[in-house]
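Long-time lurker, first post. I've been practising inverse folding by hand and with some scripts of my own, and I keep getting stuck on stretches where the structure tokens seem ambiguous. Below is the full token string for one chain I'm working on. Before anyone asks, I'm not after the true native sequence, just a reasonable design that respects the backbone. If someone could post their per-position residues I'd love to compare against what I wrote down in my notebook.
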């Protein structure tokens, strides 16, 4: 199992600005744990996400000398991608492409057709600059707007991404709508149909539904999972306030059940969790 830790997702919706030094210290603690990838920040308009307006400053303070963890930054348009691509420390650029037309407009002020054109430009940029584009198919398991959704629609989006040369696609449960009944058929269809693509699961969940969701993705062949320590953040639009990011701690429980080796330093993880308690005020 490949674990991607997402402090950016946990932080971005908080109303009170987390001081740059606090963010940097927390991310440095996470870098010692041994995650495959750290979704650490975003190059998005400060008006849209004021919490992450200091991503460049945070990046400058990260200690990357003794970590195997790669960095991922979220971008919302080509301009942000061009900025992120200038930093040699960043390996991955992440872009949210929605299968819901309504959400794409709300999230990036673009139609899905315009967003796909942006993906094409970003993919070309990544190939030119030695980065890898990670495309998140947001609203990948359904949406609250009444926009059409089906496994066939998700497959069609994936087919278009594959044609552009995109190599990592994460199905994103933006509002916590996924169930085992929707997760299993999607991954079971996509993984064998697109062997050149690494599929990930960015699942949002309640404290009681996490296991069935992870198991459904895993049993269908998914081995890339996003999580956040404490399950913090993730679902500002979810109807259920208990719905949040997949807790990294739960992913580790599941990995242990499957006999999967994650390679994480559990002592470093415990120290990072202590840091998180101060950053996010939880216990």
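-- Answer (accepted) --
I ran through it position by position. Result:
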């Amino acid at each position: 199992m490949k674990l991607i830790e997402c402090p950016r997702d946990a932080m971005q919706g908080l109303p009170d600005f987390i001081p740059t030094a606090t963010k940097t210290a927390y991310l440095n603690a996470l870098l010692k744990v041994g995650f495959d990838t750290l979704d650490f920040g975003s190059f998005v308009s400060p008006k849209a996400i004021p919490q992450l307006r200091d991503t460049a400053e945070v990046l400058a303070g990260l200690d990357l000398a003794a970590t195997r963890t790669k960095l991922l930054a979220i971008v919302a348009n080509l301009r942000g991608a061009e900025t992120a691509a200038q930093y040699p420390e960043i390996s991955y650029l992440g872009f949210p492409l929605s299968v819901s037309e309504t959400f794409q407009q709300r999230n990036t002020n673009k139609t899905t057709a315009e967003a796909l054109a942006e993906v094409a430009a970003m993919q070309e940029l990544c190939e030119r600059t030695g980065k890898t584009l990670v495309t998140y198919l947001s609203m990948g398991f359904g949406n609250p707007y009444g926009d059409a959704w089906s496994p066939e629609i998700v497959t069609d989006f994936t087919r278009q991404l594959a044609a552009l040369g995109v190599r990592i696609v994460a199905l994103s449960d933006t509002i916590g709508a996924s169930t085992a009944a929707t997760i299993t058929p999607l991954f079971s269809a996509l993984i064998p149909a697109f062997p050149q693509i690494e599929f990930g699961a960015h699942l949002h969940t309640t404290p009681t539904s996490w296991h069935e969701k992870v198991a459904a993705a895993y049993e269908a062949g998914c081995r890339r999972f996003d999580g956040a320590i404490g399950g913090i953040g993730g679902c500002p639009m979810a109807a259920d306030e208990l719905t949040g990011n997949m807790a990294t701690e739960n992913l580790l429980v599941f990995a242990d059940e499957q006999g999967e080796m994650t390679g994480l330093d559990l002592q470093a993880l415990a120290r990072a969790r202590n840091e998180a308690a101060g950053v996010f005020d939880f216990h």
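A couple of notes from the structure itself: Residues 141 and 182 are 7 Å apart (CA to CA). Residues 236-240 have pLDDT under 50 and may be disordered. Happy to go over any region you disagree with.
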